[in-house]
Amino acid sequence: MLGGASSLYGAWNIGASAEKAPINRAHVIRIARTFRPHARWALGSLTVIATSASLGLVPPLLLRSLLDHALPEKNLGLLGWLCAGMVVVPVVVGLLGVLETYLDERISQAIMLDLRLDLFRHLQGQTLGYFTGARPGELTSRLHNDVNELQDVFSDTVLAIASNILTILTTLLVLIPLSWPLAVFALAILPLFVLPARHVGRKRQEIVSRSQERKGELTAYLQDAMSIPGFLMRRLFGQSERESRRYEQICRELSALQIRRSLLWRWLVVALTLFSSLGPALVYGAGGWLAIREGLSVGTLVAFVAYLGRLYGPVSALANVHVNVMGALAVFDRLFQLLDQQPEILDAAHARELESPEGHIHFENVTFRYRPDKPLLENVSFEARPGEFVAIVGPSGAGKSTLAYLLARFFDPASGSVRIDGHDLRELTQASLHGAIGYVTQDPFLFHTTIRENLRYARPEATDEELVEACRKAALHEAIVALPEGYDTVVGERGYRMSGGEKQRLALARVILKAPRILVLDEATSSLDSRSEAIVQEALAGVMAGRTTLAIAHRLSTIVEADRILVIEQGRLVEQGSHAELMRLEGIYAHLFAQQLRDNTVSV
């Protein structure tokens, strides 16, 4: 029924490759906003980092004093204090590192939680058309794989930048006074760290983006392949080997990208290691010359070289951070792309609650199209008064289910209006509208949990007595208590442990608990055998009593008692009336009904 929706609403392919995100002010500001709620914790972490960086300056100075004063002067007291300092300072720095790790991890996990919740809530607000154009597995991958990819962005990127810059600045404050000529030699090598980092960063951004796309494909594929319908399709059509090859292909592509990602990183490490070794070599050469010719002390030279680790190490780390930033930009770009998808259906600014609904439905000159060039419904007008049973019949693809989607405001009409109790649906909040409507489909969705939890999805606060009463009205209670675990029986994926009739009655019991004023039955019994259909129809009669019911039917024998029957053909309302009136009219409905009697079938 919604095949056309994919072409329009699914035009944005969630798995499509996006343009690589440039580093621009707007992008950086948007990413920074994700950290803003955790600024106090970040400030605490920065304070710890600054303290640790300052204390890290002490050990080389202790070493210089040991070589230049304690040993030449044979000062045992000073020697003892210096040795004690060499133990105490690293221990304190280590303890500060533990505190920093705790703060960083706390912030990272909080940011990931915020992103997941934002994404999930955003997706909950999307329309039915959006989900017809997106594979659930790819959405799952955005929520799981992409967010996981950002797990270390804060600790390994944002705070790493602050930590390394602080370390570099504090080190330079000591290096320059120690020996400014050696400081010039040490700084001359720094620009060489930038070149490989920029190249690797660009490549990493591309690889991360492609890797996340492949992970999305893999998650979506496994979600289909490992489901019960997927299993049945593979076995019944003998496609197990083909599906194995398809899975292997996706995994091989992902493996190749991961290998490229690892090799890029390793080449960067090689380059940075080379430059980190070149610096000390230059300093030793220049320092040795200064020690021989200019009288530079050995302690100063040793301390200076010891400080080089605090200079080149952070510079190397910043080069790595640049690579991480480029990879993070690719992931943030994918997440922002998802968050930027605005729902087609939104509550109006002045939307009001639908209070105490009576269930008066009015379609007035409704036209709806999935594609601009071809209307699916055209100028459809009808009315369902409170408590009436109105049936909708017609050939497949005529637009019957679309009427139900419009009533629930899953879509808005291109022209005309849909009203409940005189209110245009576009003037109502979606939450209050959906609270007034109960929906039972041909294949009701059940969660892979207990019968009790599936029932309580309609009303979490329902008591056990209310669950039992609802199941009695749905003619299901006796079947449930006959099970070994009763209401605590797990129904299996999509309710596969239950028969079709039992699933339908469970769906009815769920609707009874919800107690809606309007009931929509979308071919609710068309897939059942005669015995199950009779049981469900009997249960339906009790559920429909006093409610406005809109029933989409293929089996015309199930709607002969309807107050009004609407006949839809090629998107137009061509006939309406009671069963008797339409039979006397001898039009489309009479022809369909006669054909079903003749063929002894319930399919239109």
Helix/strand/pairing category:
alpha/beta
CATH topology of one domain: ABC transporter transmembrane region fold
User: Which percent range describes the beta-strand content?
Assistant: 5-15%
CATH class of one domain: Mainly Alpha
What are the low-pLDDT stretches, counting only 5+ consecutive residues below 50? 1-22
General shape: elongated
Distance between the termini: 15 Å
Query: If you average the pLDDT, what whole number results?
Result: 79
Instruction: Trace the largest sheet across and list its strands.
Output: 6-7-8-3-9-10
What share of the residues lie within helices? 55-70%
Radius of gyration from the CA trace? 35 Å
- Count up the helices: 22
Give the beta-strand count: 10
- What is the fourth-level CATH superfamily of one domain? ABC transporter type 1, transmembrane domain
Q: How would you portray this structure in words?
A:
This protein is of the alpha/beta class and 604 residues long. The chain has a domain at 24-339: ABC transporter type 1, transmembrane domain (ABC transporter transmembrane region fold, Up-down Bundle). 62% of the residues lie in helices and 10% in strands. The chain has a six-stranded mixed β-sheet with strand order 6-7-8-3-9-10, sandwiched between helices. A hairpin with a 2-residue loop joins strand 4 and strand 5 (423-424). Helix 7 (136-149) packs antiparallel against helix 13, helix 10 packs parallel to helix 13 and helix 12 (240-293) runs antiparallel to helix 13. The radius of gyration is 35 Å and the shape is elongated. The chain starts with a helix and ends in a 5-residue tail after the last helix. The model is unreliable at 1-22 (pLDDT under 50).
